[in-house]
Amino acid sequence: MQRSKPLLQWLVYAALALWLIVASLPVIWTAIISLRDYVDAFSNPVKWSAPVTFENYRALWIDREFYRNFFNTAIVTLGTVSISLTVGCLAAYALARYRGSLGFWLLLIALIFRALPHSTLLPSFFTLFDALGIRNTYFALIFVLVAINQPFTIWMLRSFFMNIPAELDEAAMVDGCSRFQAFRRVIVPVMWPGIVTTGLFSFLLAYNDFLLSSALTNAEKMTMPVAIANSISAESEALLMQGVAGAVSITLPLIVLVVIFQRQIVSGLTQGAVKG
Amino acid sequence: MARIELKEVSRIWEQAGKQTVGLKPMSLSIAEGEFIVLLGPSGCGKTTTMRIVAGLESATSGEVWIGDRCVNTLEPKDRDVAMVFQSYGLYPNMTVYANIAFPLKIRGMGREVIEPAVQRAAALVELGDLLDRKPKALSGGQRQRVALARAIVRRPSVFLMDEPLSNLDAKLRVSMRSHIKHLHHTLKVTTIYVTHDQIEAMTLADRVVVMSKAEIQQIGTPDDIYNNPENTFVAGFVGSPAMNLLEGQLQDGVFSAPGLRVPGFTSGHRGAVVLGVRPEDLAVSVASEAASNAAESATAVANHARVFSCELTGEATLVIADVGNAQTQQGQVSAQLGKQQLTAKADKSQRYAIGAPIALTIDAQKCFLFDAASQKRLRS
User: Quick one: which of B26, B28, B23, B29 has its CA closest to B11?
Assistant: First the structure.
């Protein structure tokens, strides 16, 4: 036992290292070729080194006005995250503290809506939004993304709230808080890691969404994933390279975000894992 | 400080068409500055009662008065009560200082009021040097003292304590108990204290309310509860080791059960009764010598008891004896049927082997008689 344990550990490390290389290679390679011209990027045999150029990024951000797509994504994502977190926190708190049987059915219904494939909802959204004249608006897209995201946020936040003993709310209420003050001043601060983690997940859903964004927006309101997909599938060498640069551009904010919230995410995820 | 009055307060939960009675209609008046302990096993309604007073639970019927206000419709924050919870209920993201200051801060008081008040409360529970820590970095006893400080900091008119000591180890519990008693003596705030620990109840209370099965069994001073139990529940629940309760018949002033005969009762009652006798009121002696004495003595006796177990507690020796086993009496193998066990508190120097024959002497004057059917006390 004494000897086999380190050996096993080395094997695990080796396997993990190998996995890390395999998993990160496509991402790293994309980042590398985004700084080359088309010929160097897709040469056969593969070139390990080539002259560095920022032409793809310049063409993408300035000529193609990618900042418009970035702006669209930012609005849609922030809108989705803030609405679904606000609604999600209030609903999940209520469901976590509510002792009746109705709560169970509400959660079950929410789960069913979450389980439906997104594309099945699209036709009815088209009809509805056309009738209301709000297709191609931020509002329509945010509305749909929130609707799809909400069951998940409620479920996830509820499990975090369940981990907070009701004694804490009660102590706060006896100490002088109204129910809402207890929620805002005592429970939310304790919940913060859970809220950040859930917020990140709903951020990812809105930020990465392609299907709904491409179906519900026109060129003017187009988000980053849609713009990138259009570039890559355009069968033009220059546009393909812009798509590659776009793929790197869309990833950077995510990395920044994870680095900033690293601690909360880890504690949020482990909190859920251990107690949930 | 305030009087508390519960008038016919009850609590019934309804879920999926099923009714659960948490509290049968009960009335209780608590005097200003009184220390009341609600004592009972889990599920007896004691915590429900306290939560109704706090406003964390609403009463199904009845009225709760604190001071001269009916507080039924008031939120917990407006009732001027402070509560200490079993698992402390401290705010984990705040320091000890912020925890204690919270009730004042939420009421919009300024720093110049909060600072000295927190210092004073912290000093009262000897927490002065821990104010910058987070609750996570404190021991159980320290956390409980923070909870106490948070309760006393704004000088409420009522303290509610829900099993505040049950998460602490035995030694700490004793020292915190004296802390709480001293605190009550200093502040003289009306206090309701919930516990299932009868020692806490006896040592802390001005009056004890013994509860079971969602209703009050007896209200009285600790002395009353111990020396004058109203029914078999109170008799058996209060006291450690518990009072012996023996089923038998009373006829012509003589209580008899298999292997047991206690003469000398003045009660004119006859029929099925329960005899209650505290372990310290039972005398243990070696079988042979007692047997001869017992014949003349009016204060007898189980002559043919056998030691089931002998436990040394240090200050006394507990002898648990089988009585009424027909085998020992007649040599016949008839019967676990009438067999009962008695616990006696003997002198700490006494030792008995398991299985040894002993005699037990009971003084009828120190016994309690209860009606077998109603379980209520029979008074002569």
Answer: B23
Domain count for chain A, please give it. 1
Q: What is the ipTM of this complex?
A: 0.81
Domain boundary among B204, B220, B237: B237
Which of A174, A186, A189 has the CB atom closest to B83's CB atom? Answer: A174
Sign of CA dihedral B215, B88, B91, A263: negative
DSSP code per residue over B155-179: --SEEEEESTTTTS-HHHHHHHHHH
Q: Do B220 and B251 belong together in one domain?
A: no
Q: Tell me the C-alpha distance between B4 and A262, whole Å.
A: 51
Residues B135 and B78 both lie in one domain: yes
**How many domains, in total, are found in chain B?**
2
Q: ∠ CA B325-B329-B334 to the nearest 5 degrees?
A: 55
Contact assignment for B77 to A173 by CB distance below 8 Å: yes
* A15 burial via Cβ count (<10 Å: 0-12, 13-18, 19+): exposed
What is the full per-residue pLDDT of chain A (276 aa) written as tens digits? 455 678 899 999 999 999 999 999 999 999 999 998 888 888 888 888 888 899 999 988 988 889 999 999 999 999 999 999 999 999 999 999 887 778 888 888 888 888 888 888 888 888 888 899 888 899 999 999 998 889 999 999 998 999 888 889 999 999 999 999 999 999 999 888 889 989 998 999 899 999 888 888 888 888 999 999 988 888 888 888 999 999 999 999 999 988 998 888 787 776 644 333
Q: Which residue of B has its CA nearest to A182?
A: B106
Residue B68 DSSP class: T
Query: Taking CB atoms and an 8 Å limit, are B81 and A174 in contact across chains?
Result: yes
Q: How many CA within 13 A on the CB side of residue A87?
A: 16
The DSSP secondary-structure symbol of B243 reads P
CATH of the domain at A95: 1.10.3720.10
**Domain residue limits at A261:** 59-275
Q: Which one of B213, B237, B261 terminates a domain?
A: B237
The Cα–Cα gap between B342 and B360 comes to: 9
Hey, CA dihedral for B223, B228, B233, B238, is it positive or negative?
Answer: positive
B17 touches chain A (CB under 8 A): no
- d(C-alpha A216, C-alpha A109), whole Å: 25
CA distance B170 to chain A (A): 24
Domain that holds residue B362: 244-378
pTM, full prediction: 0.80
My answer on whether B232 and B251 are in the same domain is no
The verdict on B20 and B85 lying in the same domain is yes
The answer to the question of residue A95 being in a domain is yes
C-beta separation of B131 from B95 below 8 A: yes
How deeply is A39 buried, as exposed, middle or buried, from its count of CB atoms within 10 A (0-12, 13-18, 19+)?
exposed
Whether residues B288 and B307 share a domain: the answer is yes
- Taking contacts as CB-CB distances below 8 angstroms, the residues of chain B near A174 are 54-56, 76-77, 81-83, 160
Which string of DSSP letters, residue by residue, matches B282-337?
EEEEEHHHHHHHHHH-SS--EEEEEEEEEEE-SS-EEEEEEE--HHHHHS----ST
The CATH number of the domain where B179 resides is what?
3.40.50.300
B250/B231 same-domain check:
no
